[in-house]
Design brief:
Blueprint (H helix, E strand, L loop, with lengths): L2 E5 L3 E2 L5 E8 L8 E6 L6 E6 L6 E3 L7 E6 L4 E6 L8 E8 L16 E2 L5 E5 L2
Parallel strand pairs: 2-11
Antiparallel strand pairs: 1-3, 3-8, 4-5, 4-9, 5-6, 7-8, 9-10, 9-11
Amino acid sequence: QLQFVESGGDLVQPGGSLRLSCAASGFSVEPYPIGWFRQAPGQEREGVSCIDLGGSSAVYADSVRGRFTISRDNAKNTVYLQMNSLKPEDTAIYYCAARIAGRDASSWRKMPIDEFDYWGQGTQVTVSS
């Protein structure tokens, strides 16, 4: 089965940090931009960050820019999300996915969910004192 396995979620206090990992199972991440998404209770899934094939370019949602950093290690078939200065509003299940088809070469930068697949089960991040 082609999917990601997310890990690293935890309960953390506001202002704390977490590093999420996303390991591909059954396929190589190398040909795809990879995105991190999150879904809070009662909310729609939203794009958090996405990184290009080589790891040289990334985009971030306004709500996390300057606090989160995405990276990838193609040799390890893994993508990471370093989350600093966490806020209660960051509480959500975090998922990663591969951008497998797009409207154009740069559409991945808008993180349209319908262009992404190979979703994992997610990892829970809870920010609370």
